[in-house]
Structure prediction request, 70 residues.
Amino acid sequence: MQQLSGLDAVFLAAESGHQVVHVGQLVVFDKPDPDFAPYPAGLVPDLPDLTDALVAEYELLAERTSESSG
Prediction:
């Protein structure tokens, strides 16, 4: 969790139950458990394959660029 900036703290301090100024919502989150998985298993099965394909494409492009400039 990060500390509020000075400006955010001023806006929050100006709020009251009778005077609504700038804060629409204040939400405090707890850190997730260490074994937290952001996606259910099987939801994005091709993500590692896609990452590998993008890295391979980037390396190929970098190789072609270095060949044409050198």
